[in-house]
Amino acid sequence: MSIGIILIVVGLYFLGSEKGAAFLRSVQQPDGHWSDADMPALTALPVWALVAAGRDAAAVSNGVKFVLAQQKPDGGFYNAKPGRGGGGLGTYNTSEC
Fold first, then answer.
1. Residue 8 in contact with residue 20, Cβ under 8 Å?
2. Widest Cα–Cα separation across the chain
3. Backbone dihedral region for residue 94 (phi beyond 0: left; psi -120 to 50: alpha; all else: beta)
4. 18-22, 41-45, 55-59: lowest mean pLDDT where?
5. In 3D, which of 15, 12, 38 has the Cα closest to residue 25?
């Protein structure tokens, strides 16, 4: 699902597609995240695309609330993943959020 969302985000950003926005609305989870809740960047990407396309204030607001709730006391956006050494791609997630 992550690759599908990334492709839709790219299409939405460059084309401003209502079809892409509709897809993102349809797969956003009730708590505001898209795709993997342990990877805040996978929610930040659709948020950025929807903002850039000027679409879906409600979906953006829900996504932003979810992302902000993931922020750690050190300012980073990441969730540790057991068995993954350094965690859940903290640098990637923080840079996207």
1. yes
2. 40
3. alpha
4. 18-22
5. 12
